[in-house]
User: Fold this.
Amino acid sequence: MHPWVTELFSYGKVGALVAALRHYAVLFKIFMKSIPKKSLEASRANFNWGVQKTHRRLNLEVHREDWMQQILQNSDEVSGRSLSIKELESNMNVMIFAESDTCATVLSGTANYLIKTPHALKALVEEVRSAYNTPMEITFESLRQLPYLNAVVEEGLRMCPPNPSGLQHVVPEGGDTVLGNWLPAGVSVETFYTFDMKREILANLKRDTCGPMNFMQCKPFQQVRGAA
Assistant:
């Protein structure tokens, strides 16, 4: 395993704990003062690697169509839309962290549960193989039309959510209204994918049991499938 990936795992564990303890001011202060030196070093190493990657990409003379290129092309110093070097470094770290393990978590977890649930794996294989005669026929648009495959994807996201946090946002100065509730400035707002999007399913589901059919029978899922 690449040293960077190892450090990312350490960084992620600390980040998840910090996100949870932020809700408890006293515990948060105590925790921040007692973070192990190894964890702090891992966090610094992770950030420094991201900084190095940022400058390496900025100094690249070869044209490359990536998300960094889109940021640079759409930057405008006159209007203030451009990002500073510090902002680029910070965003690079977020992007690298987000892309390093999220897909692997969902795919490996989904494969694991499919292997442990033979009837679900069999149904998935039959649907995919009956829909295509050759690999060249497989497209993103046609994959969207396979209900069981999409149910497996949704169930994989439920069983192995790639993001342990709720993607926090901080209410800006002056406060704001969220879902009809007034919130003062500085309050952290987050939404957990599993509990927000799948409440109807979770109400009648054994949470540790892999079951794509739960989504097939869910009205919101059926409505989305119908719209697709």
Observations:
- The chain has a mean pLDDT of 76.
